[in-house]
Amino acid sequence: MCRVKTQITHRFSFGPWNISEGADPFGPEVRGAFPHEKKYALFRSLGFEGIQFHDDDVVPDIENKSPSQILEGARKVKTILANEGLVPEFVAPRLWFAGQTVDGGFTSNSAADRDYAWERTQKSIDIAKEIGSNSLVLWLAREGSYIREAKDAKLSYERILDTINRVLEYDDSIEVWIEPKPNEPTDQAYVPTIGHAVALSYASQAPDRVKGLIETAHAQLAGLDPSDEMAFALAHDKLASVHLNDQNGLKYDQDKNFGSSNLRAAFNQVRVLESAGYGSRGEFIGLDVKAMRTQKGLPVTDHLTSSLRVFHHLLEKVRSYDTGKEAAFRKARDYEGLELYVMEHLMGIS
Ligand code: XUL
Ligand code: MN
Fold it and tell me: Which residues sit with Cβ closer than 5 angstroms to ligand 2, an ion?
């Protein structure tokens, strides 16, 4: 018997960085830049309603702009979003590019660099509010160490918690969404898993406003199963967003197309999200996928539409998955039988 449930209409999002020039550290870029301002017009036609931003995706050259110029820039983007029918999902401070963040921002050993990180974070919150988003994503890129002795890890974790509390105090409706990643660019990142993020949430001044964004590849890089990571966050009602993509083993962060490396793991992510009713409160299904360097075209968008298509196919597989059969196999503890059922279901045999 299949479950009878009100079906959620999913909303999808990605960020402008997902339409890229094909850069990697070993050679020049392989495509021209598709103008940033022209990207807005692509979202809806590709099937996406939400847009994710870094602070300087909203306001380019942010370092050289005054507070009023920053707000003026943000207002312009707000108008574009309204015209294109787009929803700003979140803004993330890009804390991994500047000279001041070479060794991290919030956890830098330099007080001046920590001040810079906080100022940049404030700017990101101002931008988020101005464009109509209440969500600040913290991907803690360089908050970690290359060698363990370089930083006081306990102090670093205290500093990260202090920063979260500062954000919560700075604006009483902003939410902090932590996107954990275990490594790259650092050797060992602080807050490597959603468990760490959820612990910080409970330790913060406003646990209801501190949540997580789980990226498939990041969980896999930590040697964890992304669907179990999602389930953990869902069990604590702390899954604010996802970055679906894929990863082929423990190497650099690949951001491959969703399901392209491990279809069954992708099925399980959709299954866990769907059975928890993820999306029923408007949460987005975000995709953080990279175009292959070998792909021609300007703009390149097939990686986005392919991943979206795979998500929809897997959603059908989840919705036609026989949970009655699953329950019977579980009751009999016949996991061999259950596994074969899952495999045949995925292969279209049952
Ligand atoms: C980095 C990553 C980022 C964040 C947003 O690995 O996934 O793109 O999603 O800054
Ligand atoms: Mn991501």
Answer: 215, 243, 288
Going from the C-alpha of 275 to that of each of 5, 233, 280, 321, 328, the distances in angstroms are 9, 14, 11, 11, 18
Cβ-in-10-Å burial (0-12, 13-18, 19+) of 276 comes to middle
Quote the DSSP letter at residue 257.
P
**What are the structural domain ranges in the chain?**
11-319, 322-350
Using alpha carbons, select from 53, 33, 124, 50 the residue that is nearest to residue 87. Answer: 50
State in Å: Cα 135 to ligand 2 middle: 15
Q: Does residue 19 surpass a pLDDT of 80?
A: yes
Q: Give 161-218 pLDDT, tens digit per residue.
A: 999 999 999 999 999 999 999 999 999 999 999 999 999 999 999 999 999 999 999 9
Within 10 Å of residue 316's Cβ, how many Cβ atoms? 10
- Spatial separation of the C-alpha atoms in residues 81 and 48, rounded to whole Å: 12
255: amino acid identity, one letter? D
Name residue, tokens 């392989």: 30
Burial of 348 (0-12, 13-18, 19+ CB in 10 A): exposed
SS3 category, 143: coil
What is the CATH architecture assignment of 11-319?
Alpha-Beta Barrel (3.20)
The CA-to-CA distance between both ends of the chain, in Å, stands at 14
Q: Whose CA is nearest to atom 4 of ligand 1?
A: 139
Cα(104) to centroid of ligand 2, in Å? 18
Cα torsion 141, 147, 152, 157 to 10°: value is 30
